[in-house]
Amino acid sequence: MRVTVVTIKDVAHRAGVTKQTVSNVINKRPVVSPDTRKRVERAIADLGYTPNLLARGLATGQTMMVGLVVPNITNPFYAELVEDLERSLETEGYSIALCTTYGDPVRARRQLEILRRRYIDGLILADDGSIGRHVDLLTEVGLPFVLCASETEYPSGATVVTFDHGRAGYLAAQHLRDLGHREVAVVGDIPAHEVRLEGAHRALAEASITVAPSRIRATRVSSRLGGFEAAMSVLTEHPEVTAVMASHDLLALGVLQAAAELGRTVPGSLSIVSVDDIAAASQANPPLTTVAFAKQRMARKSAGFLVRALKSGQHRPGVTSLSPELVVRESTAPPSRN
Amino acid sequence: MRVTVVTIKDVAHRAGVTKQTVSNVINKRPVVSPDTRKRVERAIADLGYTPNLLARGLATGQTMMVGLVVPNITNPFYAELVEDLERSLETEGYSIALCTTYGDPVRARRQLEILRRRYIDGLILADDGSIGRHVDLLTEVGLPFVLCASETEYPSGATVVTFDHGRAGYLAAQHLRDLGHREVAVVGDIPAHEVRLEGAHRALAEASITVAPSRIRATRVSSRLGGFEAAMSVLTEHPEVTAVMASHDLLALGVLQAAAELGRTVPGSLSIVSVDDIAAASQANPPLTTVAFAKQRMARKSAGFLVRALKSGQHRPGVTSLSPELVVRESTAPPSRN
DNA sequence: CTGAAAGCGCTTACAG
DNA sequence: CTGAAAGCGCTTACAG
Hints:
Two copies of one chain form a homodimer.
Chain A: H1 8-15, H2 19-26, H3 34-47, H4 53-60, E1 65-70, H5 76-90, E2 95-100, H6 105-117, E3 122-126, H7 135-141, E4 145-148, E5 159-163, H8 165-179, E6 184-188, H9 194-205, E7 216-218, H10 224-237, E8 243-246, H11 249-261, E9 271-276, H12 279-283, E10 289-292, H13 295-312, E11 318-322, E12 325-327
Parallel strand pairs in A: 1-2, 1-3, 3-4, 4-5, 5-11, 6-7, 6-8, 8-9, 9-10
Antiparallel strand pairs in A: 10-12
Helix pairs in contact in A: 1-2, 1-3, 5-13, 8-9, 10-11
The first copy, chain A, binds a DNA duplex (16 and 16 nucleotides) through residues 5, 7-9, 17-21, 23-24, 26-27, 31-33, 36, 51-61.
C-alpha cells in the first residue's frame, strides 16, 4: 500500500556522497564543507526527503515522543491540561502519545507497557489517584517521568507538580465564612478530594463553624450529574443551608442545577463556591466563584521539568506545589435574612 | 538514563536457540516444535521480554499506530469522538497518536508531516473544514485515511463518514415549526454550518416562514461565549422572536445564558433548539432539545473502515452518511400568547 | 572533511 | 523444524 519512499541512500546517491555525509548535514554537524553541504541540501530538497523517525529512534534511542497519561479527556480539566501540555512540549520538538486510563489500573498498566515498548522518551502522568501504583514500573525501566499530582499521596523520589489542595479548600470556605455563612453543606468527590475538604473544615473551624456529617455528601460519579444528585439530597434534607462548597467545578455546575430545580436563586438564596476554574465555570449562569488552579502553569512546569530531565539525563526529584487563587464571581453573596 | 533492556538476542541465548526462532514463536508462526516453543516461552517469561515496537515497525513497515487529527479536544464534541475512536481502535491493537490543529492549516500540515515520518499506519481526520487541503499530502504518500467529515465539501475518492447535516437542520427547524413558532432567529457557526441552516430554511419555508437576514447571526467564536453574544444581539434587536435555532449545542448553551440574562424563561418565553447532542446538552438547565449526531456510530464506522483498509491493503472510497435524530427535551415548547 | 564498517532490534526469505 | 544472511533506515565512532 505504501508508495515508495525516499531514504537517506537516495539522497546520498543523488548528491554523489555517502549516506553518513547526508546524516552529517541533516544533524547539522559542522564537519561538512560548505560545498558538499549545498549539494546535499539540494538533493534533499529535490527529492523531498525527510528522515524516518522510526529508524532514527532505533539508532539513537531517542524517539522525541513523550507519553501523556490522563484519566480521560471528556473531563474539561484534563482536556485543558492536555492541550497546554501539548503546546509546551511541541515547542521543544516532542510529539505526544496520549493514553487514557478511565481510572482503570489494569488498563493504565497495559497502556504504560505499550508506551514503553514504543520507546517514548518520557512521561507526564496526571494522577487519578491510582497512578502511584505504577511508579514501580516506570522506575524499573528507567523511564523519566513527572507527576501532575492529584491530592492523594505521591511516591517519594519522584518529580511532582501539584496544587496546594488544602489551601484551595481553605480559600473557598474562608470566602463563605467571611461572607457570613454559618450553615454550610459540602458536596465532595470523596475520598479523592479529602484534602480540599480538610482545608475547608479548617477555615470554618476558625469561625467555630462545624459541618455536621449529614451535611456532607460524597458524589457517586465525578460529574455534573453527580453534583446534582448530591445537592438535591442534601438541600432537601437541610433547607436551612445557605451555602454549598463543592470540591470541584463540575460538581458545582450540578449544584447550580439543583438550586434551579429547587427554586433557590443563586446567589440570592444560595451561595455556591468550588475549586478548579475550568472554562465552564466562568460561563455558567451565574458565573461561578471558585478557587483557580493554574493548569497552564502546571503544564509548563511539568513539561519544563521533563524536558530538562531528558536533556540532562539527570533525574531531579522534588515536589512543586502551586498556589491556588480565589476568583470571586457571581455565585456567592452574604446569606439573606429570612 | 535508560536501564539495560532485554532484547530478542538475550532470549535466544537463554533458550539456546537463534533469534529468528524466538521471532517465530513471538509471531506465532506454526513452524516451531512444541518443545523449543516451551523453552523460548520460558525464557521470555523469565527475562520479561517484550518486543521493541520501533524495531519491529522498521522491519515490517507496520507500526500499529494510527493518527487522530482533530481541531482540538476542549470542544466536547471532539473529545467524545476521540474517546470513542480510541476505544474502537485499541480493540484492534492500534495505539493512537493525537494531533490537534486548532484550525490552523499550517499547523495541521506540520503535524501530518511528522506523523508520516513516524510511519503511522493510517489516519482518521475529523475535518474542521480545512483538512480537505491536505488530502493531496496523504494520497501522495499513500497513507490510508478516513475522513470524519464536517459538512463542507470533501474530496472525491476518499473514504468519508459524515452526518446528514442538511437533515439535522431540517429536523430542528421542523420541530420549531410544528410547535407553532413563526418568529424564528438563527445563531449559527457560519459558514461552517451553512448546510444545517439551509436544511432549517427548507423546513421553515414549507410553512411559508422566512427568516429575515437581520435575524441570522454568525458567531465570532465557536463557543458558548460566541452563542451568548450572538443571541444577546439578535434578541435585543428582535424581541418578538419566540424561538432560536442554534447550529450546534455549544452555541445553544450560550443562547440559554443570554435568555437568562434577558429575563426570558426557557421554554416559557423562548424556545431553543440546536444540533449535536453533546453530553452537556442533556445536563443543561433546562435540558436542551437538539438533533443528535451519533458520535459513537461515527467512531465505530470510521475505525472499521480504516482497519479494513489496513488489513486488506485496499482503498475503498465512498461516503457514508449517518442519519441524525431529533431528541426532544425541555428547551422547546409552543410559543406563548402575549 | 569524507568514506567504509558496525550496530540499533527486529523480520523475512532461504538454505539445510 | 532450525540456523546463517541480509535488510529495514538511520547513527556513531573510526580510519583515511
